[in-house]
Structures are given as C-alpha cells and as structure tokens.
UniProtKB/TrEMBL annotation:
Pfam families given in the database record: CooC_C, TcfC
Coiled-coil ranges (or none): none
Sorted UniProt keywords: Signal
Secretion signal span: 1-24
Residue span(s) of domain Pilus assembly protein E-set like: 268-335
Organism: Rheinheimera soli
Residue stretches of biased makeup (Polar residues): 808-818
Superkingdom of origin: Bacteria
InterPro entries: Fimb_usher (IPR000015), Pilus_assem_C (IPR031917), Pilus_assem_E-set-like_dom (IPR032636)
All copies of domain Pilus assembly protein C-terminal, residue ranges: 710-805
Protein name: Outer membrane usher protein FimD/PapC
Keyword Signal attached: yes
Region (Disordered): 808-830
C-alpha cells in the first residue's frame, strides 16, 4: 500500500479519538456521512470528500479487504481498488465482483433490486469501515443441496465434431462422422445429433441418421425431456436389462436427476481387456456404431475407457490385425455415479412414446409401435441397490432386474438379469474384490435369444487379477473361457528400475489362448520379454521386445520389436512414434502421431503388415465450435463440461500468451483472437487470467476475473484487452495554477481520483497515451500526451504538471520551472 500524507494521518487519529468517545457503542447505525463529519474539525472534514480514502471493507461482518474509495457529501461511495486482502476468507473473485458493483457512485443505505441479494451499505467514519450486508449473512451455515439455475437462464450453441477413418489396402474402409449440438435458451437445453457410418465389413451399406432431437429441463432432483431420443434409462446408477427394443422413440420422459446436486462423485471404471499377438487395432462399437478405435500392442492390455461416453452399457470389441478380424468380444462399460443421498432411496425413470427412426437410412424393427416403460432403483440399505425395469413394445412385455451389493468395503457384486417375452433371456454378473496391493474381478455372461426361430446361446467367463508386489514390481493374470472356443490364460510381470541412469521398465508376459482361427487347431501359446527405456526427462522413449509364439499356420515363430516414442513441447505435433516388428513372415512397420492446435485435436497412425505387406491407416479428429450472439470460436479442447466461455483477446503483443484458470481446476492457454474456455454447466464459478511468462511484466489486462453461471449449452462472451502499459504520475492544475483535487482521471486502461494536491497515479496504454478529466461526471478536459513529455524510467512516466483548460484538447506544461517530482506517498503503480 502507498504511504499517506500528513493530512490522512491526522484524519485517522481524529477518527480514532471519535471512536473511543462513542460511549462503548460497538455497532454503528446508518448515520449519514455528513452528520458523522460534523464531529470533526472543519479543516479535517474538507479532506474527507472527493479524495481517495483508505478503508477496511467488510462483507457480512467478515473481512473482505483493504481498499481505496471516494466519499461524497451526498452520501455516496465509489470503490477505486483493493490494496490488500491478507487472511481474508474470501477469494479474489468476490473482491472483483464488489469492485465492479461499486465502481460507480452508489448510495449508502438499503438497496433493492441489487445483485447477490444485496441488502445495505454503510460507512463509518469512526473506524474507516465500509460494511456490505447481503441475505447470505443469514445462510452462511446453511448447506444447499442443489445448485440454483442461472438467473435469467443463458443462451448459446456448442457443436462437437468427431471423425474416425480407417483404411486397409485393397479392402473396404471404415468411417464414422458424428455431430452433436447442444443449445441453451433460458433454462432449457436442446440436444441434436446426427451421424454417418460406413463399416469395413464387406456388403454393408453406408448408414446415416439423426440420433437425437429433444429438449430437456433440469429441476431439483428431477428432469423432464420431450422430443426424439433413445429410451435408455436416465438419472439412474443401476440399469436393469430389458432385452431388445432399445431404439429411438418420439415421446416424453420424466426422470430422477442429480445434475443440480452440489456434490457429485463418480466411481472407478471396471477395466476392459483385449489381447493381440502382434500390434493391432481395436475397434469399439456401441449399438453397431464405431465410437472409438485404438492401437494396441502385442499381449494383454486394457483399453482406454476415459474417452468413452458415461453410463452403463454394452460395447463390442473388434481386434483387427493386418486388415483381418482376429477376435470379437462383448464387454460392459460401468461409468455410473454413486448414490448421492441415502435419505431419498427411490430413483425412477418413466417414458412413453412411439418407436421410430427419424430421418434414418434404416427403418426400426418396431416402427410405429407404442412403447412405454419404467425403471426404478431402490436403496435397500447402505450396501445394496436393486433395480427393476419393464418395457412394453411390439405387444410384448420385457422385464429386468439388477442388484449392486457391497459385501464389504472392498468387495462388490453386480448382477443383471432380463427376460423378453418370446425373445429370450440373459444374465451378466461381476464380482469385484479390491485389496491393499491389487484387485480381483470375476465376470460371467450368459444369454439365450431366438433369432429367425433359431435359439442362439452365448456364454463366457473371465477372471482378472492384478497384484502390486513392491514399489517397483507388479504382476497380472487373466483367465477366460468362451463356449465353443475354449480357455485362455495370460500372465505378465513388470519391473521398473534405473537402467543407464534412466527410468526403464522390464516386462515378461506369457500366454496360452484358443487357436487364432478355424484353419488350425493348435493353440496360440508364447512368451515375450520387453524393455522400455525413457530418455530426456520422459520426453523420449525407446523400447524393444523378444518373444516366441504360435504363428498363423500353427507352427512356432520367434518375434522381435524395436520402437521409439517422443513427446514434443511447444509444437502443434504433441507426440510421434515409430516401431518395427520382425517375425517369420518378414518385417512390419508402425508409426503414429498426435497433433493439436487451437482448433483441432487429432491422432493418426499407419502400419505395414509383415504378413502380406499391406498398409493400413487410421485418423481420429475432434473439434468443438461454440457460438452466441456476440461471437463464434473453435477449439480443440476435448474436456467438454457442458458450457463454454468465448474470450476475444485483443492485444498489441502478437506473441502474448495468457493462462485462463477455471475455479474447477482446468487451465487453458489463450492467444490473441477468439478462444474457448470450457466451463461447467449449472455450477457457478470464476475464470481468472494471468500471463504465461514473466516477459509480460508491463502488459496490463483490462480484466483479471470473469464470473460465470450457465445452463447446459450456454455460452458466455468476454472481450479481454491486454496492452503494454506505463504507470503515469502527474499533477492536475487549473488555468490559474491551483491544484484540482477530487477530479476523476481516466483512459482506456484505468481510472483514478486526484488527491487534494492534484497528484494522481494510473496505468496508461502505451499505444494510446490519452487522459480524460471528469468533474461531477461531466467532461472537463482532454490530454494527448506526446512521447517526449516529462521523464520515463522503465515502466514509470512522470508527466509533471498538467494544466486543465476546458474546451481545449491540449496539454500545457509549466515553463517557468521544471516539473516537480511527485510526493513518494502517492505513487501506487497498478
């Protein structure tokens, strides 16, 4: 804080004496400022009004910060800036809000129709305290279960684009394009989606269609939906199976909802595994549509489920190797939320409508049929959730039941059974056990369905075990059995240590699986040893592997693999990788790269098969476009949280980079132009801005904090300026050479009020050196400051005396004597 003049010190001493003579009164009443000032000597009272005063600001009787403000005789205050906030229970966003609210003159006393349920404002001369009172003072200890919806709602449009391409030489290619748009009007959210898909399976035609077109409104604990959508249960943590008929419908849905619950937690995802005997590609399908594809190396490994949509649903995993389908399996994705409130044991989902396919290249098997259903979840006790579901479709009833039972704090049993009238039945069960250094998962799937009057049954069992042996060693085991195929086993051991002064990982894996194809009856057995070495502080990675396995024709073959990966910083290319694999057929090549810029996020890969020399390639692209009435922007951000903030950054520094810090924990880099900052829907928060490097010490931001509270699909807009600035120090005089105190001085970057002596300090944009002087809100004079005015020292500019002559847009300097240096106590660079 700046030091104060003797006048200010005298005023503070006098006010302290007044406070001690207030006959023990501890609570100041709303006494007009002029009446309070009557107790002060006339000489001191004249220095209280229309000049900057240092005060303590309290919000609901809690310390908000020290600040500079201006007090006027008509019982109004104007907050200039906060100077300190040490040990304040409030964050900078709260101070920024009140600084903005009180930036113009505001009357003391009660306030109606103000933001934040602002009740009253009071200023006490006796202890230089500004008190702010809001309705929150009565609710400080009252926890709110639900978030309140944005006041007045929000508007905006968010479009997410996803493109997946895969091609194998001399084979049919696979492609998938998905567009999902979320818009907000008021507190309603409108969803629409469409996709085009072409499978690599020969004979399959191109599919296109609209996947959703509905509107939804979130309420406290409930939600309502109307339009065209899938009748899958919403708002439930446990989904009972219902058999066939889960296609889209045109209708109405009413559900439980935890969207507005203030505290939400999500459990871990049950791991999903695939195996391959050489580098391959796993395609992940949901309801017949390709939703993701990933490269996998030889051996047992878990797929990355973080990129998959939330919910509890079944996926189909297709392992494609050398352009051929090697294996195909089913798996369940469990990404459900915990049971939030045990005081509300019942969750529900009700729907009714007409089954149809809207703007679709295929027709629904139940086209035009009336469909209705209900799904319930009930919390029996702290460890057991049961689910019941029923659906009427195609003049038949489908029933389902589920149970989620925690046997202990480490073990859980999940079971799901369904029966479809005239179609069949199915059972899916999982037992999960976790211990200090590992976990165990046992799963069982069985189904029997009638297809074209033929009963088809499927059965599979799997046991997965992971064990952390020590800080540097871990092991895993997977046993699986599939009807009509046999039993398979995979075991691996991993050891991390220092090798050649770098972090290295040894891995030994062995496997014994069913035959690769029907062409041979010999089982696929083998063993592999691999070494992975990191160089350059984890930025570069070399790895190699030696192994022995069963080849396609059933004979034994030796294998080897060499590879290299590199993480790249400060580039649109984020990582690249190359590898070669050697086997009895020849040499195979693999390469990949991930790219990300301001607008697109993508990864691409290409490989050459050692078996037949054919090339295969793949490309995944994602991009998000957001818009509202004020602007349009695109982003590569894939952390979509339901709402967005467009930041239009204007700057005279082409290489400027800012960091946008969301209060939810996310950080986004901003550059001049239009930027997108993803933010959470429904939950109020703040985005704060600062500089990415220290080279921007003399650049000033027009705003450091932006608050948001948006509906899902809502988009807010902020125009942010970042210009190189100087701290200007000068003194304002009238045409007769008398000091002008209590006058407002402002420019493009900031504003201040002159001291009684006429001195002022404020930040000025270097590219626009202008000043405007206001008196009682009316323009008084304007200055255009030439670059050779006064003295400049780094980021300080001493402009000397400025003669304010109304109706003359010019600056005049005293010519009789050099410009005096400002008193040090007024220097307060912003």
């Amino acid at each position: 804080m700046p030091a104060f003049s003797l006048n200010h010190i005298a005023i503070c001493i006098t006010c302290t004496l007044l406070a001690t003579s207030a006959s023990g009164q501890t609570v100041q009443s709303a006494i007009p400022v002029l009446q309070q000032a009557e107790q002060l000597p006339a000489d001191f009272a004249s220095h209280l009004f229309n000049v900057p005063l240092a005060v303590r600001v309290e919000l609901n009787s809690n310390y908000l910060g020290d600040a500079l403000l201006v007090l006027t005789e008509d019982d109004k205050v104007q907050l200039l800036s906060f100077t300190d906030a040490y040990n304040s229970p409030y964050d900078d966003s709260e101070r920024s809000f009140w600084q903005q609210e009180l930036s113009d003159k505001v009357a003391l006393g009660p306030c109606t129709g103000c933001k934040k349920q602002w009740l009253a404002l009071d200023y006490s001369l006796s202890d230089s305290r500004l008190s702010i009172l809001t309705t929150d003072v009565e609710q400080q200890n009252t926890a709110q279960k639900y978030q309140s919806l944005p006041e007045g709602g929000s508007s905006g449009l968010i479009i997410q684009n996803q493109l997946n391409l895969m091609n194998v030489e001399n084979s049919a290619s696979s492609s998938y394009y998905h567009l999902e748009a979320v818009a907000s009007t008021g507190n309603w959210t409108h969803h629409s989606g469409a996709q085009i898909s072409k499978s690599g399976v020969a004979g399959n035609n191109t599919y296109y269609g609209v996947s959703q077109l509905y509107s939804q409104r979130e309420l406290q604990g409930h939600s309502v939906r109307a339009g065209y959508f899938a009748n899958d249960p919403q708002g439930l943590s446990l989904r009972p199976g219902r058999g066939s008929g889960g296609e889209n419908m045109l209708g109405l849905m009413l559900s439980s909802s935890d969207t507005l619950v203030t505290d939400q937690q999500y459990p871990s995802t049950v791991p999903v595994y695939v195996t391959a005997d050489r580098p391959a590609i796993v395609e992940i399908y949901r309801n017949g549509f390709l939703i993701n594809s990933q490269q996998v190396q030889a051996g047992l490994q878990a797929i990355d489920t973080k990129v998959l949509p939330g919910g509890i649903y079944e996926v189909q995993l297709r392992v494609v190797q050398d352009g051929q389908l090697i294996s195909e399996s089913q798996a369940m994705i469990y990404k459900a939320s915990n049971w939030g409130d045990s005081s509300e044991p019942l969750r529900y989902n009700l729907f009714v409508g007409r089954q149809t396919q809207l703007f679709n290249s295929t027709e629904s098997a139940f086209e035009g049929d009336l469909t209705a259903g209900a799904t319930l979840n009930y919390l029996l006790n702290a460890s057991t959730v049961v689910g019941l579901g029923t659906q009427y479709i195609d003049k038949a009833i489908q029933l389902g039941g589920s149970v989620d039972h925690s046997l202990s704090d480490r073990s859980k049993l999940l079971a799901n059974y369904y029966h479809s009238q005239g179609k069949g039945y199915g059972l899916d069960a999982q037992f999960i056990y976790g211990f200090d250094s590992g976990n165990l998962v046992l799963s069982q799937q069985y189904s029997k369905n009638t297809q074209n009057k033929i009963a088809v049954s499927q059965q599979s069992t799997a046991l997965s075990w992971q064990q952390r042996i020590s800080a540097s060693q871990s092991a895993s085991l997977r046993l699986s059995h599939q009807a009509h195929r046999g039993t398979g086993a995979d075991i691996s051991w991993q050891y991390n240590h220092k090798f050649m002064d770098t972090d290295s990982t040894w891995r030994v894996s062995a496997f014994n699986r069913p035959a690769l194809s029907d062409q041979t009856q010999k089982r696929n057995t083998g063993i592999e040893l691999s070494l992975n070495i990191n160089f350059g502080q984890q930025s570069s990675q070399f790895y190699g592997a030696l192994g022995n396995r069963t080849s396609r024709d059933g004979s034994k073959e030796s294998t080897a693999e060499l590879g290299w990966r590199k993480q790249i910083e400060n580039s649109s290319i984020k990582s690249i990788g190359l590898s070669s694999n050697f086997d009895s057929y020849g040499v195979g090549l693999n390469s990949y790269a991930t790219l990300q810029n301001q607008y697109l996020n993508s990864d691409l890969y290409m490989s050459r098969s050692s078996f037949d020399g054919k090339f295969s390639s793949g490309l995944n692209l994602t991009s998000t476009v957001v818009a509202n009435a004020n602007g349009l922007a695109a982003s590569s951000a894939n952390t979509y949280q339901g709402a967005s903030l467009i930041v239009d950054l204007e700057s005279d520094q082409d290489d400027l980079e800012l960091m946008a810090h969301d209060s939810a924990g996310q950080t986004v880099v901003l550059k001049p132009g239009s930027n997108v900052v993803p933010v959470a829907a429904y939950t109020p928060g703040t985005v704060s801005f600062d500089f990415a490097n220290s080279d921007s010490a003399y650049v000033s931001l027009s705003q450091s904090v932006q608050r948001y509270h948006l509906n899902k699909g809502g988009v807010d807009y902020l125009k942010l300026s970042a210009y190189k600035t100087l701290t200007v120090i000068g003194r304002l005089l009238d045409s007769e050479g008398k000091a002008l105190g209590g006058h407002h001085v402002l420019n493009h970057s900031s504003r201040t009020v002159t001291e009684n002596s006429g001195f002022f300090t404020l930040a000025m944009r270097q590219s626009a050196p202008t000043l405007d002087v206001l008196q009682q809100g009316e323009p008084l004079c304007h200055f255009e400051l030439p670059s050779d005015t006064g003295q400049q020292q780094q980021d300080l500019w001493f402009v000397g005396d400025l003669l304010c002559q109304p109706d003359q847009g010019q600056m005049a300097e005293q010519s009789t004597q050099p410009a005096p240096q400002p008193e040090p106590q007024i220097v307060s660079p912003e």
